[in-house]
Amino acid sequence: MANGSRPEWGTRFGFIMAAAGSAVGLGNIWKFPYITGENGGGLFVLIYLVCVALVAMPIMVSELLLGQGSRQTPVGAFHFFHREGSSWGMAGWLGVLAGFVILSYYSVVAGWAMHYVLLSLTGFTSQGPEAIGETFGKLYTAADLNLLWHTLFMVLTVGVVIGGVKKGIEKTCNVLMPVLMLLLVFIVIRGIFLPDNGFMKAVEFIFMPHAEMLSAHSVLEALGHAFFTLSLGMGAMLTYGSYLGSNKDVVRSALSVSILDTVIALLACMMIFPVIFAFGYEPEAGPGLVFKTIPIVFAQVPGGQFLSLCFFLLLLLAALSSAISILEVVTATLIDRLDWQRRKAAILSGLVIFVFGIPSALSGSGKLFGAWQEIFGRNFFDTMDYLASNWMLPVGGLLTSIYVGWIADETKVRKAFGAEHHSPWLYIGFRLLVRFVTPVAVTLVLLNKVGLLG
Ligand code: PHE
Fold it and tell me: How much is the pTM?
């Protein structure tokens, strides 16, 4: 284990940009708006905020402290806080496996964003609404296009990771994140000037809780999403934490990253819903909200082509900075555990993930594993998404909280938490959350999924 030469972030700002880059992704711009739409807005948002604060934040702190304290990737970190060779190392390997699964289909969606960037450049928004609406179906079923974009996106991701922690990831995220925020704020501000009071309707939809929409399902969906959007449960934050100098405060870092991620998710809603309301569309469009509805509505706004370009570029940047963090978990684990060179580790793991992603890229065309749908009830792509976001990440998060709360050496945890620099109540609060609240909440989510909660 090449611990002496462990890379470190250049600046605290760089770390925050990289970690926020990991957190802010398709989850924020694509998924959060559509599930907010499906779950009726305000109250769902409120519940989501509570889930982030009480359940996800303790796991984020846990992951960062495991990484920073051990200066190792997930497997080594789970050994370090327990004992060398501990079977808890398996929890680390589960994270690496989740990385393979997530990136393999994440890259396909990111590829769609690339395709839409190109379409926006060539002015597809000037077609009629019907033609624009059909664009997505055409892309989804085109095997060659999906393969092409999947390949390009993986090459891009591997390229950044080869560059290393400081020169590849940090440098890239230092540019990507501010550009992303500028684009986002620009589209939100543009929304203020939309007709039919669209902006105010959106603000009301997002921030005014309506009690009648409350259902147990919404609560569990909000909780599950809090994991995915904060990149928790697979060691991404843990790995980024391992490059954090020992003098950096993990609680403050977790707070900054969670706040940034949440603000961006809310801004994403404020970017999408004003146009939806201004032109009389329904917020419950589901997963197609971003790729189908948005281009159709943008086409009706003056300057829609430019808006559409900004929007899909933003989606692509968000996806890229998240994909980098997923590949980094796999790459850095191979470097730590097998002493591989970074270049070799990044290329080989990228190649395996690429190949593993081919059935997902071809899912829409039905070209490979066509019978998968009949056997499992969802196509290969959907199966990977379901497996990762519904099972692997929550289980990973559950294991992390049980480990930090009950198994890990408490003296080491207390030290890595920086307990002596904070009020004793902060550490006590963290410990209560991580020992009881988080594991119970995640267990409820999992029980609900196997249908035991009705
Ligand atoms: N947080 C990312 C998003 O919101 C997805 C992700 C999950 C990234 C797990 C890394 C690890 O899109």
Answer: 0.94
